[in-house]
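Human:
Class, as today's exercise, you are to examine the entry below, and be ready to discuss the fold:
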Amino acid sequence: MFEKRKLKKALLSNDVAAARAALTANRSLRYTDINHYRPLYWAINRKQDEMAIMLIEEFGDNPSNRLEYKPNAFFYMAMNGRLDLFKRYEEAYSIIIKTSLVDRSEWTLLHHAAYYGHGDFVRHLVEKGMDIKAKSDDGATPVYYAQKNGYQDIVAFLLDEEQKLAAINKEKEAQPTVAQKGWQKLDDQRIAHVREDKAIGYRFTEIFNFAAGDVTRISQNLVTKAESSAIARISADSADCRAAAAQLGISLDSKTTLLTAKSALPS
């Protein structure tokens, strides 16, 4: 009991050396309070990153483990905006940023980051592919909680990402069938290129829209069918963009202005 009191005191005062000494003296020593918070939760909630790193890396406190009804430590990182700490371990613990990683209320990490107003955390999760339209058990998306708590910068960002996602989904409707490979003309201003790399297990589709001046790139896992998409501007400096333009008989100048020409492919 005395050793546990020493550990608790060290944790509350953010005394990393004292906490290390207590845990080194008794590696089976663990402390949880009446609310089932363990030391790692305390460190994250108190923004004690050095303490958290020590607990994880020196004493094996796995941040992906849950205790009782509590969510795992990654959720506390999202709640408290500990983005650097999160980045340090998201790959090491194979954290897949997707809707299936939810707490008891079916909140994703993105729900928590948006609710507490951590814009940099929200942007990182979106970049990692977290579903911005995921719903909690009461049917609310992350943007709802950001709006509710007055985080207008996060609201604007998420709404903008929703518009981009809608544009991508619209473009994907024109995606060629998976049985087709190579160049496929969609219309006079759009052409798609599909290839598979079975060595890494992915299919890559590029849809060049010369009317809009952009290219949609879609990567699909051949086993899980999971997809990721991105839109970029068509560039005259890009070999694949020039190849696509050539297939349609369209020229690109150095400023990427589209110079129309007669289509090189039959309708």
